[in-house]
Amino acid sequence: MSRVNVRKRGNVYEYFFEGAKVNNKRKRITKSGFRTKAEAYEYGYRAYEEYNNGGIKRESQMSYADYLDYWMKEYFEINFKYTTAKRYKDSFTTLKKELGQYKLCDITPYLLNKTLLGLYQKTQTKETLRNYQKVIKSSLRDATYYFGFIEGDPAGGLQIPKILTFESKKRMPSMYMQ
C-alpha cells in the first residue's frame, strides 16, 4: 500500500505524502510540475522510498569503477594518510579494469575471490596482492556501512589466496599432495 497521493493543480500534476510531525504539526512533502498523473505518481513513489530510507538509495546500480572514483573523492583522500593513499592509488587502475564493469549490487564474494586469484597469477607478489585486497575490502566496507549503497559487504571474508608454488609442493611430504 502506497501513501503517495496525486492531484491536478491547473495544467500540471502534483504528488504529496505525509512526513513525520514537526513540533506536533503535520508535515506534508510535495512537488508539482509533472505533465501526467502517472509521471507524478512515479516520482512521488521514488521520493517516498527515499524518505523512508533516510535519503539513502539502497542497492546502488553504480558501477564499481564509478564508485571507486566517488570513494576516492568523498572519503579516501580525506581520511587516509598520503603514503597509504599513494600505495592504494596504484591499485585503482588495475581494480577498475578487473571489476569496474560490475554494478555494486552485483559484486559477490565468489567474484572477488576469483578476481583476486587471477590478480595473483598476474602479479606473483604477495605485497601487491595485499594492496588489492585492502582496497577492495575497505572500499566495499565503506559502500556498505558509510555510504549505504549496498546492503551487505561482499568483501567481509575476502582473503589472499593460499596458493602453493611448484617449489613448495616438491618439498611437501607426499601425504599432503593429491
CATH class of the largest domain, anyone? Mainly Alpha
How would you sum up the major sheet? 3 strands, antiparallel
Write down the overall mean pLDDT: 81
Rg for CA atoms = 24 Å
Report, as a whole number of angstroms, the end-to-end distance.
59 Å
- What is the CATH topology descriptor of the largest domain? DNA polymerase, domain 1
Provide the helix percentage: 40-55%
The CATH superfamily of the largest domain bears the name Tyrosine recombinase, N-terminal domain
Distinct helical segment count: 6
Order of adjacent strands in the largest pleated sheet: 1-2-3
What structural class is derived from the secondary structure elements? alpha+beta
Strand content: 5-15%
Runs in which pLDDT lies below 50 for 5 or more consecutive residues are: 164-172, 174-178
Short description:
The chain has 178 residues and is of the alpha+beta class.
Topology:
Layout: E1 5-9, E2 12-22, E3 25-34, H1 37-52, H2 64-79, H3 82-99, H4 109-123, H5 126-146, H6 166-171
Antiparallel strand pairs: 1-2, 2-3
Helix pairs in contact: 2-3, 3-5, 4-5
Can you characterise this structure?
This protein folds into two domains: 5-52, no CATH class; 59-178, Orthogonal Bundle (DNA polymerase, domain 1). It contains six helices and three strands; from the N terminus they run βββαααααα. Helix content is 52%, strand content 15%. Mean pLDDT is 81; it is low at 164-172 and 174-178. The chain has a three-stranded antiparallel beta sheet with strand order 1-2-3, with helices on one face. Strand 1 and strand 2 form a beta hairpin. Helix 3 crosses helix 5. With 178 residues, it is an alpha+beta fold.
